[in-house]
Amino acid sequence: MASVVLSEAEKVYIVHGVQEDLRVDGRGCEDYRCAEVETDVVSNTSGSARVKLGETDILVGIKAEMGTPKLEKPDEGYLEFFVDWLVY
């Protein structure tokens, strides 16, 4: 994992936030956002889930299918991944 370089001002800001039990959004350090989790929300997938955490809304769908091995590696399987996302 890459190291993160913080300025002295950023370090002071973080330390004071912890000392004052306060986050940028006004919540206390031990306050959490309500979470909602739903499964099987997309009908044309092998599996799907929707997670809502505060203002964050994530929808994930997975499609799986069996295929044949590639000709050059007939004794090995493989996985292909395709990722699409939308930020709004």
Automatic annotation (TrEMBL):
What Gene Ontology cellular component terms go with this record? cytoplasmic exosome (RNase complex); nuclear exosome (RNase complex); nucleolus
This one is known as Ribosomal RNA-processing protein 42
One of the protein's GO biological processes: U1 snRNA 3'-end processing
Q: What InterPro entries does UniProt report for this protein, alphabetically? A: ExoRNase_PH_dom1, Exosome_comp_Rrp42_subfam, PNPase/RNase_PH_dom_sf, Ribosomal_Su5_D2-typ_SF
A single GO molecular-function term is:
mRNA 3'-UTR AU-rich region binding
- Natural source organism: Tichodroma muraria
Query: Would you identify the family this protein belongs to, as annotated?
Result: Belongs to the RNase PH family.
* Alphabetized UniProt keyword annotations: Cytoplasm, Exosome, rRNA processing
Q: Which gene encodes it?
A: Exosc7
Query: Transmembrane helix: present as a keyword of the record?
Result: no
Its taxonomic placement starts with: Eukaryota, Metazoa, Chordata, Craniata, Vertebrata
Q: Which residues form the Exoribonuclease phosphorolytic domain?
A: 32-83
Q: Where in the cell is it found?
A: Cytoplasm; Nucleus, Nucleolus
Pfam families from the UniProt entry: RNase_PH
Query: Entry's PANTHER family?
Result: EXOSOME COMPLEX COMPONENT RRP42, EXOSOME COMPLEX EXONUCLEASE RIBOSOMAL RNA PROCESSING PROTEIN
